[in-house]
Write a structure and sequence with these properties.
There is one protein chain. By secondary structure, this protein is of the alpha+beta class. About 25% of the residues lie in helices and about 35% in strands. It has 5 helices and 11 strands.
């Protein structure tokens, strides 16, 4: 809503955004595949993820209370950030309620197919906030922070808060689709589909990149050395991988 709501007490609405991206790559040999995993694991280690989540937290106007990070063997990383509205500052040993429900988490999953030479790097980011702050404003930043070929997003608002007159409010901002919060120029690069249940405050959007510039998807492979037939074969493999992730079905 454009005007700030006048509420009775604290805004008890919980707003949760689940943001998943898939970055697709072609790695020809087993050596290339191994090096790709090592590259992506180093590129998006827990320290880099902390930087991304710190920027995200600042964008939604929240305050970081605690950060936990972990890098895994043989690959992958996780970061969890406990956050609160900037007006909700912990006082000594007493902490404001609801902080356990305001957090940002990220997990990475690098993997590759041993036969098709297609490698897929997946990132899962979950943002859960209580109060007035909402994670929807960070979508353009998140899409740009990763090489996003396929994106799935779920947004849900739970619980209720009360107006000064005691009326229950189950939503404190207007939304018809997650796409409303993504830059139009960004949307032009993707095919986007919605599955929304506004009566339940549930919104789902999935996106897949419209065009492939093959040179952007080759790892340790010179496009100039590939035949026309080889280029088409690689492009078909990449498109098949994206399509299967987008529709959630093996084809």
């Amino acid at each position: 809503m454009s005007e700030k709501l006048k509420l009775y007490g604290f805004n008890n609405l919980t707003k949760s955004l689940s943001f998943n991206i898939f970055d697709i790559c072609y790695a020809e040999t087993q050596k290339d595949q191994k090096e790709y995993i090592e590259y992506i694991d180093d590129m998006y280690n827990s320290d880099r993820l902390i930087t991304i989540l710190t920027n995200l937290t600042q964008m939604i106007g929240a305050q970081i209370l605690n950060i936990s990070q972990q890098d895994y063997e043989p690959q992958g990383a996780s970061v969890t950030v406990l956050i609160a509205e900037k007006t909700m500052v912990p006082m000594g040993k007493t902490h404001v309620a609801h902080l356990d429900k305001s957090h940002v988490t990220v997990h990475t999953y690098p993997e590759y197919h041993p036969e098709t030479c297609v490698a897929t790097f997946r990132v899962d980011i979950d943002v859960s906030t209580c109060g007035e702050i909402t994670p929807l404003s960070t979508l353009d930043y998140l899409i740009g922070a990763f090489d996003s070929d396929v994106i799935t997003m779920d947004y849900r608002v739970r619980g209720f808060t009360r107006s000064l007159k005691g009326k229950k409010l189950f939503m404190d901002h207007e939304i018809h689709s997650i796409q409303e919060y993504i830059d139009k120029e960004t949307l032009k690069e993707y095919n986007a589909v919605d599955i929304n249940v506004p009566e339940a405050n549930l919104f789902h959007t999935k996106m897949v990149r419209e065009k492939i510039c093959l040179d952007d998807y080759l790892f340790n492979t010179n496009i100039e050395e590939l035949s026309k037939e080889k280029k088409q074969d690689i492009e078909n493999r990449l498109k098949k991988e994206m399509t299967e992730i987008f529709i959630g079905k093996t084809v």
